[in-house]
Specification:
alpha/beta, single chain, seven-stranded mixed β-sheet, 250 residues, two-stranded antiparallel sheet, Spore Coat Polysaccharide Biosynthesis Protein SpsA, Chain A, 10 helices
């Protein structure tokens, strides 16, 4: 019996450091539209859900998802883990893929790679971020329905509620974890391709202006090749530090 695989993309407009970042335009399209298009293009995904909040500020976000034919779930802003559980309720999916709305260069090939490793069995959680090899912003996380529910039931720390998979990732004694590594040509863990600050936006604008072709997805390999030739673009956000959780860079 084959698994039903649902991808849940979490997004909201009330970002502290860069408000409304998921609605900012890149090559004439909002960031969230690039993200959803990429996740929807992953061949191993059966359905994509946009999990946002009940806040009126997120109405435009929900409207974009609806216009793309994505199922929308709206839940508690402060409890992202509960949002995931709510998005899964009533669905028969037994595998959940987690993505965030501020990573406009996520690659469906990377998603398929991580999902494929998960489907080999003998793990409850698989990702390419236990030990990073791809750039930050290329993350894909896959966990079983049971692992998500267990995290929801047992994860009581604020960090568990905010980061969804932190409970599983910090309890290797209770969950079987699997890391997926990039091919050598796509290995660049120090590269920052996530949207949190204005400097990140400046980098993305350069990349999309140079490489994006309407109707075509940007592949991470092509982006890496171009950025290796343009260190001045890489330098735009290289000084930024990611927020830590429990004192670690997850």
């Amino acid at each position: 019996m084959s698994s039903r695989i649902i991808a849940i993309v979490q997004a909201r407009c009330s970002s502290e450091r860069l408000p409304g970042k998921v609605l900012l335009p890149l090559a004439g399209r909002p960031v969230i539209q690039h993200v959803l298009t990429a996740v929807m293009s992953a061949s191993l995904i059966d359905e994509v859900v946009l999990a946002t909040t009940t806040s009126a500020a997120d109405d435009p976000l929900a409207a974009i998802g609806q216009s793309m034919g994505v199922r929308i779930y709206r839940g508690i802003e402060e409890d992202v883990l509960a949002r995931f559980v709510g998005a899964l309720a009533g669905d028969q999916a037994d595998v959940v893929v987690r993505h965030v709305g501020d990573a406009p260069l996520v690659d469906p090939g990377v998603i398929n790679s991580v999902v494929g490793h998960f489907l080999k069995g003998d793990c409850d959680y698989a990702s390419n971020m236990i030990e990073r090899s791809w750039p930050r912003g290329s993350e894909s996380e896959v966990l079983s329905r049971e692992a998500l529910y267990r995290s929801h039931q047992e994860g009581t720390r604020p960090e568990d509620r905010e980061h969804v998979t932190i409970y599983a990732r910090t309890h290797a004694d209770r969950f079987r974890l699997r890391n997926v590594k990039a091919l050598p040509q796509e290995t660049w863990p120090e590269l920052r391709l996530t949207l949190d600050m204005r400097e990140d936006l400046a980098l993305f604008e350069k990349v999309f202006d140079e490489l994006y072709v309407p109707g075509h997805l940007l592949r991470i390999g092509a982006v890496i090749d171009w950025l290796r030739q343009h260190p001045e673009v890489v330098a735009l956000n290289a000084h930024l530090k990611q927020k830590t959780v429990f004192g670690k860079d997850f």
